Amino acid sequence: MEKDVCDEDLMLGYQAGDAAAFETLYRRHKGGLYRYILRQCKSKNIAEELYQDVWMNLIKARERHEVKAKFTTWLYQMAHNRLIDHYRRQRAAAGGRTVNADIDVDETPARKQDQPEKKVEIEYQKEYLLRLVDNLPADQKQVFLLREEAGMSIKEIAETSGVKPETAKSRLRYAVNKLREGLNDHGPG
Fold this sequence. Notes:
This protein is mostly helical.
């Protein structure tokens, strides 16, 4: 039943006081949103703080929320804005210099395989791919993660990022090409 209700209707339900609607939205989007933030800031502690801030901002904004775009576009725009605020504060605290966060790789369990060597190989490939994503230019990394983690369309990515759809499409194409090149240069395991 809850699968049939779109995110926008759930948000309107939550706005009207339906706490179960919020719980459904949270369950649907918690994983993708958290991974998006984590892969942008590379620190579990910071990601958890920013993740909670985004959900708190959603709760605070529920009274004045109007459906102008898809819910995911609105949610990831809040996450994007929160990340920008974080980096601005970080830069200001460092006297204008960029501060590098410690890399903290998401420890998602590898697929179950009978052979331990396969597990190790899969884990190695996953970590290598995450390093390639981390090394993408910021604009390319953002559109790639919005596509992969949030499942957004080019139009939604453009709205979230504040760029034209052609720019979002171009950035995504460059990101995918760089990732393919990195994987091809690396070769198997």
